[in-house]
Amino acid sequence: MSLWTTLASVVMLIPAPSHLLPAGGVASKFDDDVRNNGTIDRELESGSSAKLEFTGSHAESSTTGDDVLAVPKPCIIGERNLGSLANLPRPSSMSVAEFEKLLFEFLHERKYQQLSWLVDKSIRDTGPFIKGRSYGTHPAVRVYYSPEIIVWLMNGRIGTIPDGAMIIKEQYHEPAIQHVKKSEAELRASIKSWTVMFKDSQGSHDGWFWSNPYPAADTPDLRPKVNDNHAYPFPHADSGFGHYCIRCHAATQSPQIESPSRNNEFTFAALRNIVGFPGEPIIFRVDDSWREAAKLSKLAELEIDQNLDAKLQEKQAQLEATAVTS
User: Fold this and answer.
1) Quick one: the chain helix, strand, coil %, rounded to 5?
2) Residue 199 and residue 267: Cα distance in Å, rounded?
3) What's the Cα-to-Cα distance from 276 to each of 37, 119, 196, 281, 310, rounded to whole Å?
4) Residue 27 has pLDDT above 70, yes or no
């Protein structure tokens, strides 16, 4: 049973419907067009992980081992374009602050969009929203997946994800329904934060670098900024290896992997959530309480606008009076 479904069951105090299980722990199948197009040779050895072989050139990976998934370059499987590789350096090769500068720029410029990464079908909730309160594991999210992640998912979640792979969650105020009709520009302005998984097998036992930066209100363009967690008031680090994220992600189990194991890939990612693949994301209960909160927010904005207009009119009157007397 997935963590999200477990959480929903506890909150709703009802058993989780069997058709919702599982979102993250069971191997997904190739859809027919990919499985039968002749460009992939899937080799399964008894008792071992799978390795994908592609026609054309291959991207190099610093991850070693026979079970490492080879990623095509360009990243195209049949008629499916998986986007381009991020090609960021490994976080274990530099200080956290140095890597954050590169990563935060990557996020702020939304380079994952520019690289044409595959993305979730829509912004989705990660838990119920009831009586003005979210019970999600994360805020509302829209997730982007680097090509290496898609290859691993298409391979049934079997094999080792190569270093440099990334999963990026754009996080929005919950519930997701309030973002349905927004344009991309409006969504960009609505991002609450990001959460990032970056594969670096040399950095820690679990093999992932974790990050949770926020748009900084005190920067001109709201770009995330590197915070020194070794200086007063000693904030919790936004990024690092062995982060608290593992408390939930440790509940995952990759197929054919005994748990606990460093060979587990520690992600709940599933093809059912991603554009171009069959299936639908899990839907959680959302009541109408968010509508009242949105209404109050709009009223507050209107009141601010009206106060501003009154002040502008008062200032204009003062300027006009000054002009007359002079």
Assistant:
1) 30, 15, 50
2) 11
3) 16, 9, 22, 13, 51
4) no
AA letter at 216: A
Non-local (6+) Cβ contacts of 112 within 8 A are 86, 106, 144, 146, 166, 168
Closest C-alpha to 135, from 267, 270, 10, 296: 10
Predicted local confidence at residue 232, as pLDDT: 80
Reported pTM: 0.72
Which residue from 156, 188, 158 is spatially nearest to 170, judged by alpha carbons?
188
* Chain centre to alpha carbon of residue 299: 32
212, 193 Cβ separation under 8 angstroms: yes
Do 63 and 163 form a contact (C-beta atoms < 8 A)? yes
For residue range 271-324, list pLDDT tens digits in order: 999 999 999 999 999 999 988 866 666 666 666 666 676 677 777 777 777 766
State the Cα–Cα distance between residues 164 and 159, nearest whole angstrom.
Answer: 15
Task: Provide the terminal-to-terminal Cα distance of the chain, rounded to the nearest Å.
Answer: 79
Nearest to 6 by CA among 251, 261, 171: 251
How far is residue 217's CA from residue 116's CA, in Å, rounded to a whole number?
Answer: 28
Distance, C-alpha 76 to centroid of its chain: 22
CA separation for the pair 47, 45 (Å, rounded)? 6
- Measure the CA–CA gap between 194 and 269, rounded to whole angstroms: 16
Are the C-beta atoms of 2 and 23 separated by less than 8 Å? yes
Residues 128 and 43: their CA atoms lie apart, in Å, by 41
∠ at Cα 39 (37, 42), nearest 5°?
100
DSSP 252-292: ---TT--SS-TTS------GGGBTTSSS------B-THHHH
CB atoms within 10 A of CB 102: 13
Q: How many residues does the chain have?
A: 326
